[in-house]
Write a structure and sequence with these properties.
Helix content is 74%, strand content 0%. The protein is built from 14 helices and no strands. The chain is mostly helical and 304 residues long.
């Protein structure tokens, strides 16, 4: 006699539904050619950044160990030429991707994390909590984020951590307002009222119902915000507020060095273009992925 089939528990059913939703989302994402191109570019760039210590030697970034000539044009030995210290521009660009991507990802996670928490709390509790949090959000939203980031980077010690903190603490207001609007929509749905009627507390409603429904929007916003964080890091580094260690270059510090060395006047286009093109490609790739995810998660955009 065969044993009766075991009925999966609620948690197994929930994971099964999530798996089915992920599979359906990936099928829809794979139909977006721009999203696939952006994902391919990001995968290639991230792999090159991660494998930089394996493919190259970081000690070659030391100006005392440079083997090339000053502002040497591209050649077989140096495909993208050299800087004024004789270091390979290709090597600088490759290692610069590690700093720029790290700052972009970590600063975005901080900003999105702060914005998500403030947006959910403001929408869920309402009244004086919402009024207080939104006034703080409006204060940061009105002030130019770049000016605040410059002020923080000037006051604190120069370094990667300072740039990450400066960008993360000044870029969260837009995410907070976006999450708050989405949370208000979710809080008005009938199943939230049923959960409260059955005895669900604030923590249960937020973690079990509100947060899972808000996460897709947060994920899309994160994808789009990374590019802005990378541009902000490049701006701060170009202004001389980046990491002073020459063994930790970024694309922004490369642009600053090219400007200080008068690369345009000297005709050393190979010194100026690679970091600028790299920034443009990464920002474009993140934007393409974000727009594709937005169309996947928003059926109205998909129909349009």
């Amino acid at each position: 006699m065969t044993a009766p089939a075991r009925t999966p528990g609620p948690r197994a059913l929930a994971w099964r539904r999530r798996g089915a939703a992920f599979a359906a989302g990936w099928r829809e994402f794979s139909r977006q050619r721009t999203g696939l191109v952006g994902l391919g570019l990001l995968t290639l760039i991230v792999l090159l950044a991660v494998l930089a210590p394996v493919l190259t030697d970081q000690q070659a970034l030391d100006v005392t160990k440079a083997t090339g000539g000053r502002l040497e044009a591209p050649s077989a030995e140096f495909p993208l030429g050299t800087d004024r210290h004789g270091r390979s521009v290709l090597l600088l660009t490759l290692w610069g991707s590690r700093i720029s991507l790290t700052v972009g990802f970590v600063a975005t996670l901080i900003a999105i994390g702060i914005g998500t928490v403030i947006g959910i709390l403001a929408a869920h509790y309402g009244r004086w909590v919402s009024a207080t949090l939104m006034r703080v959000t409006d204060f940061f939203l009105v002030l130019p984020s770049l000016v605040l980031a410059i002020a923080l980077s000037t006051v604190l010690e120069r370094g990667i951590g300072t740039i990450i903190l400066a960008i993360g603490l000044t870029s969260w207001p837009s995410a907070a307002r976006l999450v708050r609007a989405q949370t208000l929509t979710i809080e008005a749905r009938p199943y939230i009222e049923r959960s409260r009627a059955l005895g669900g507390g604030h923590l249960h409603v937020i973690t079990k119902h509100v947060l899972p429904a808000v996460l897709p929007l947060v994920f899309v916003n994160t994808t789009l915000a990374v590019g802005s964080a990378i541009v902000a890091e490049s701006t701060l580094s170009f202004l001389g507020l980046g990491d002073p260690d020459p063994l930790r270059p970024s694309w922004g510090s490369m642009l600053r060095s090219a400007w200080l060395d008068s690369a345009v006047i000297a005709g050393a286009w190979w010194y100026l273009l690679p970091p600028g093109i790299a920034i443009g490609i990464v920002v474009l790739a993140f934007t393409m992925c974000g727009r594709a995810l937005e169309s996947v998660l928003n059926p109205r955009l998909r129909e349009g």
